[in-house]
Predict the 3D structure of the following.
Amino acid sequence: MRRTISILAAFAALVAGTLLIVHAYRPRDNSPSLAQANGQEMGPHAGANAPQEMAENETSKPQNAPAPKTESEAPKPPGDVAKTPEPEVPLGTPEVIYDFNRLPDEIRDTLQGIVVAAQSGNIDNMLPVLQENELPPMLSTTAVSDPIAFWKKESADGKGTDILAAMVNVFSLAFMRKGEGKNVMYVWPYFAEMDLTKLTPAQEVDFYRVVPPPLGAEMKKSGKYTYYRAGIGSDGVWHYFMK
C-alpha cells in the first residue's frame, strides 16, 4: 500500500515538472502586433522563415537615397537634342507649299472640279467648271470668248487632249501663295515665279514633268518660265491658265 502511494506521488511530480517546462517555452505574447508594426502579417506559414523575410525587406529598402536632380541636372533622352534652326527665307520670297490641305476650301473645290474634268479626257466637261466661275479665266494675252473652242484649236489633236494633260500636270505640283488680304493668289506650278537656273535636282524633275525637254532646255538658259501657269484666288475664282 505504501509502495503504491509512493509510485503515484512520483508520477504526479513528473507530470507537474513537465507542465512547468512546457509553460516556460510557450511564447508569452501571441498577438500579431509586432508583425503588424512592421507592415506584415504573420500567417500560419510564416514560422521559421519570418525573420529571414523581414531581414530581406529591410535590406531591400534604399539607404540614404540621393535627392532628385533638378531639370537642368537631369540627363536628357537621346532624342532630346537641340534642333538646327532652318535657314531664314528672305522677306518677300514666296513660299513653296506642298501640302494641299493648306488651301482654303473654296480653292480646293475649284481645283477638284478642274482636275476631275481634265482627267475625263473630254474637253467639253470643262464647260460646267467655267460656268461656275465669275468670269472665264484668262487663256491668252488677248480676250477669249469661247474657251472650249480656243483649247480645241490650240491642241495638237484638235480635241484638247494635250491641254487637259497640261492642266493635270500643272495642278499636281506644289504651288506658291502670293499677295496679302483680298489680293492673295495661289500660283501653279511653284517654279513659275523662280529663277530656273537655280532649281535643285528635285525641282528640275518637277520642271520636266510639265515642260517638254527641248522647250525646257531653252527656258533654263534664259532662267524664265514661259509655259503653262495657273492662278486661283483665295475666294476660289479661277483667274488664268495660260502660257
